[in-house]
UniProtKB/TrEMBL annotation:
All copies of domain Cation-transporting P-type ATPase N-terminal, residue ranges: 98-172
Protein name in UniProt: P-type sodium-transporting ATPase4
Compartment(s): Membrane
Organism, as annotated: Polarella glacialis (Dinoflagellate)
A Pfam family: Cation_ATPase_N
Gene Ontology cellular-component terms listed: plasma membrane
Main location per the UniProt record: membrane
Length: 854
């Protein structure tokens, strides 16, 4: 069209007139400018094509973080000699993982430390000089000015800048100003949004406390956490935060909050000498990792890794080197998070416009010269001057200057609209990326489910019961299964729930929130809360239980023994609570045990039968109990067994209670138990999740659930919410052990075969998320990944859209994400995808309208 309109221009007959000398000078300058303009256009176009062709298809699978890891020292060399493998040989794993299998004696010898006296001050000082401070490598964030300049490096913006320069050359100053204003506004909005985003590496650095207690030269002293070195003996107490990765030397009733690292909300029991090392555990029982806080007990630990060698340090190395798939720095409008589908489309459009502009410019100039076209207002001037101006004018007119500003404003507007959908957008490009999402990988707990474990079924006196209610509210009823007959007066029911209350440390309290609405708020272990809430439906409260049956002994739950035990004084009561099991006259105490059904059943010799009568636990009754457990477990319910034992006296004195460890107490008291019942709990699906999952499938988006639960439990929950259909069953549910059968992840091709159709990943570790998202990206899928723990940060960073939890999420996860769910609800993701698609479609329509022209 531009070329045809040029052919209608008039041609002058005065071709032999010589222009004035002054005009000749202007002509020379114009001609030089035109040549430079064309050369610059061609060079930029060729450079961008070369960059796109040379651009790697995806970011490296694992950033080794070599520039961030401490330099090797004589100590690390000694460790290599002692154990045959050093940190340099395990670049993708933390030093703490390496130390997990080594014997304590070998570690003490390798680190040259006496556990009774600690390191000498001189040794600690020399190691500090060799190894450096115990802190993570600092990551310098680009300032606003750099971010602003980075927004000017994509094709369309460069075309607009050149168009502004050309407008000045031809004397169209208003046009140049208008174009530059658009460029500045676009870059300013994008840079401001990027600059406001948090930094995951900074959040990682703030996880530890500034000081810690260590044993040096035989005395305990408080030192700065960043001066701790490998070989130090660290003393931990309740409330302390581990300053480095520790191998436990001593531990007394120790529990650690590992939620910042693993995302699991339950406190983890730790011991110095574990009975076994289960590969399915998220963390070893004898390790305490940097940044994890002690919630109960005390301990001493040997520092085996500091700074970037810790498990948190390995995450920092991944974060520092992790880039998005298809990464191309400087693409519009978000320069740090890779090229989104919209950015790629606009990049191609910009190169196409640039190529066409160059072609039109050159063709118009050459055709004009061939036809001898003259300026009708200055027929005496040479024709090529006029053609230079015409070519530049047509080129400037061909550039759609409204596209960048429209895209940025649309995305920025989308960010504000997302807030009403409980989505806080941290990076502006994530809005349209969501609209292109083809798979959503979601956590189960708290995202697909309510995150509120609730007792829904129980078994007592040989009968099944259903427990009604919602959330943590203790109101509700207990009825016989399949009917409305009240079961709250049954002796077995009342004994079971009171025993669960007496063997729990959790509680629920009615609190008024900031919105002046009263809510029941749980306190304590999430596995115990359902027992406390269920007991509340019978008017059994923690305060009442403590008053009537004061606790005298407690053995905390341990993952090695799968049970918890408490001993309470009966104060001469004839029965275990109002309407409960009758107690022998000589019963001064009652032991209450809760735990895994198979462990508890092994210690039981009697049970409460129909009518509340205590009977021997024969083979038939044991088979009935086992079948009940299997039936409840198959429904994705978490089952706890409750048992009691009346005691005329304690087998040990409470005066020397500290001299008898937990295992000895268990051995003395966990025998000849009376099985009183089972309580089955579930974390129910969030309201609206099944409909949201169906809406995602209707929009051709695959939903994938990633959970730490066992395969059968995960498959049952996925079926309940519609992720798995009845015909698929467990066919599309994968145990993550298959991804790493020998401790190492499968090759890419085999990994992709496993993940291409999977919708459920069970027994997943946070590290598995990174492998899963990279596999999906290799298959050309645009992936959204949710996460809340520190270990989720690399996967959030690698995903096309990283989605952090606003309530349960750590600051590290939020800093690595593209957006935050302020309500931790899966439905919010699907709503955001819908909004992203609307915005994407609107931008497509606008670009089509601009390119079509009036």
């Amino acid at each position: 069209m531009l070329l045809l309109s040029f052919l209608a221009l008039p041609r002058s007959a005065h071709r032999g007139l010589k222009p004035p000398s002054v005009a000749f000078g202007i002509e020379q300058v114009s001609f030089v400018f035109f040549c430079v303009f064309v050369v610059v256009f061609v060079c930029l176009f060729v450079c961008f094509v070369f960059v796109l062709l040379a651009m790697p298809p995806a970011a490296a699978q694992h950033a080794n973080g070599a520039n961030l890891v401490q330099a090797s020292s004589p100590l690390s060399e000694a460790r290599e000699v002692s154990f045959g493998q050093g940190l340099t040989e395990v670049q993708d794993h933390s030093a703490a993982e390496f130390y997990e299998g080594a014997a304590i004696h070998d570690l003490l010898v390798a680190l040259s430390v006496d556990p009774a006296h600690g390191l000498p001050d001189a040794t600690a000082s020399s190691r500090l000089a060799e190894e450096g401070l115990n802190e993570l490598a600092k990551s310098k964030r680009p300032g606003f000015c750099k971010l602003f300049l980075m927004q000017l490096t994509n094709v369309i913006i460069i075309l607009l800048i050149l168009a502004a320069v050309a407008s000045v050359a031809i004397g169209s100053i208003p046009s140049a100003i208008a174009i530059l204003v658009i460029v500045i506004l676009n870059a300013g909005i994008a840079a401001a949004t990027e600059n406001s985003a948090g930094n995951a590496l900074e959040a990682l650095s703030n996880m530890t406390q500034p000081e810690a207690t260590v044993l040096r030269d035989g005395r305990e002293e408080v030192v700065a956490s960043n001066t701790i070195v490998r070989g130090d003996i660290v003393v931990l107490g309740t409330g302390d935060v581990a300053p480095a990765d520790l191998r436990l030397l001593e531990a007394s009733d120790l529990k650690v909050d590992e939620m910042p690292l693993t995302g699991e909300s339950d406190d983890v029991a730790k011991v110095a000498k574990p009975r076994s090392r289960e590969s399915t555990k998220l963390t070893p029982e004898d390790m305490v990792f940097s940044g994890c806080s002690v919630t109960q007990g005390k301990a001493r630990g040997l520092v085996v890794a500091t700074g970037m060698h810790t498990r948190v340090g390995s995450i920092a190395a991944l974060l520092a080197g992790q880039q998005k798939a298809g990464y191309c720095n400087g693409c519009l409008p978000d320069t740090s998070s890779g090229m989104t589908p919209l950015q790629a489309s606009l990049q191609r459009l910009g190169m196409l416009i640039g190529a066409l502009a160059i072609c039109v410019c050159v063709v118009v100039f050459l055709v004009g010269l061939a036809l001898g076209t003259k300026d009708p207002n200055a027929p005496s001037a040479p024709g090529w001057i006029y053609m230079v101006l015409i070519s530049i004018t047509l080129t400037v007119a061909a550039i759609p200057e409204g596209i960048p500003l429209c895209v940025t404003i649309s995305l920025a507007s989308g960010c504000s609209q997302m807030v009403s959908r409980h989505v806080l957008v941290r990076r502006i490009a994530a809005v349209e990326t969501l609209g292109s999402a083809s798979v959503i990988c979601s956590d189960k707990t708290g995202t697909l489910t309510e995150g509120k474990m609730r007792a829904v079924k129980m078994w007592a006196s040989g009968s099944d019961y259903e427990i009604s209610g919602t959330g943590f509210d203790p109101s509700g009823s207990i009825n016989h299964a399949g009917g409305l007959e009240d079961g709250s007066s049954d002796i077995g029911v009342r004994t079971t729930l009171l025993a669960g209350l007496l063997c729990s440390n959790a509680s629920v309290q009615l609190e008024v929130g900031e919105d002046n609405i009263s809510r029941w708020v749980p306190k304590g272990n999430s596995s115990e809360v359902p027992l406390v809430v269920a007991a509340g439906k019978l008017n059994f409260t923690s305060a009442l239980a403590e008053a009537e049956f004061p606790r005298v002994v407690e053995v905390p739950f341990s993952s090695s023994r799968k049970m918890m035990l408490t001993v309470c004084a009966t104060n001469g009561k004839a029965c275990l609570g109002e309407g409960g099991m009758a107690l022998p006259r000589d019963a001064q105490f009652v032991a209450c045990v809760k735990g895994a059904p198979n462990w508890v059943l092994e210690s039981c010799s009697r049970w409460i039968g129909p009518g509340g009568v205590v009977e021997p636990l024969g083979a038939a009754q044991l088979e009935q109990a086992s079948m009940t457990v299997d039936n409840l477990s198959s429904q994705a319910l978490r089952v706890l067994a409750l048992a009691v034992r009346p005691l005329p006296e304690l087998p040990f004195s409470t005066d020397d209670d500290a001299e008898v460890d937990g295992n000895q107490k268990m051995d003395m008291l966990c025998k000849d138990l009376i099985l009183v019942g089972f309580v089955a709990s579930i974390d129910p699906p969030r309201k609206g999740v099944p409909a949201a999952v169906q809406a995602a499938y209707d929009g051709h988006i695959r939903v994938v659930m990633i959970t730490g639960d066992y395969l059968k439990t995960a498959a049952a929950i996925a079926s309940d919410i519609g992720i798995l259909t009845s015909t698929e069953g467990e066919a599309e549910a994968i145990d993550c052990l298959k991804l790493r059968p020998d401790g190492e992840y499968l090759p890419d091709a085999e990994m992709d075969l496993l993940t291409q159709n999977a919708r459920v990943f069970a027994r997943a570790k946070p590290e598995d998320k990174l492998e899963i998202v990279q596999s999906l990206q290799r298959q050309g899928l645009v992936s959204a990944m949710t996460g809340d723990g520190v270990n989720d940060a690399p996967a959030l960073k690698a995903a096309d859209i990283g989605v952090a939890m606003g309530i349960q999420g750590t600051e590290v996860a939020k800093g690595a994400s593209d957006m935050i769910l302020t309500d931790d609800n899966f439905c919010s993701i699907v709503g955001a995808v819908e909004k992203g698609r609307i915005i994407y479609a609107g931008i497509q329509k606008f670009v089509a309208f601009i390119m079509r022209g009036p």
